Amino acid sequence: MKKTFILVVLFVLPIVAYLFFASGVNNFGKLPILTKSIGDVSSINNSISLQNKITILGFLGSDVQLKKGNAFNLNQKIYKRFYEFNDFQFVMMVPKGTESKVAALKIELGSLVDASKWNFVFAEEEQIKGFFKGLKTDLILDENLGTPYVFIIDKDKHLRGRTDDEDEGTKYGFNAISVAELNNKMVDDIKVILAEYRLALKKNNLDRK
After folding, report:
1. Which residues contact 45 (CB under 8 A, 6 or more apart)?
2. pLDDT given at position 22
3. Domain-located, residue 13
């Protein structure tokens, strides 16, 4: 009996564990694509691009002061945790005329962490509305051209999100007002997409060998 137990521990359990984790990778290894090819902010500012970047995209609106709390939540809970990963960036679309407010905000954000991957695209009202519309979400911009929601955009400029969220069903974006949502949902989804690209990179390296 003792020998049988030892054999089970040594041989059977590792196989069961492998099958469990392997099925987990297959089922949860990719973040669903909700909208394909959303366009690129490089058409507005050619020094910033979504292509080949994992981007957190946001719309701060003209009242930058009002959205400062959201920016600090994102800075502490998301940006600070992931900014050192290669090809990771923040891109915030803001109306033209807010340049001085944004410069002050970026200085404040930079007092807590290296803010070099916080990028701001200054655009006309119609450009912001058009770009937001291209996301094809169930969300809307407010009267200041802002929203508390931010979006995960992959390296091919696809909007990623959830199709089976326990609260919303299809989840296009993450509410930066809610620290709990950033901690409990957005962090997990960014981990998934980073792991997806790491696995793809490993596979490509193995294929070359």
Report:
1. 121, 122, 123
2. 39
3. no
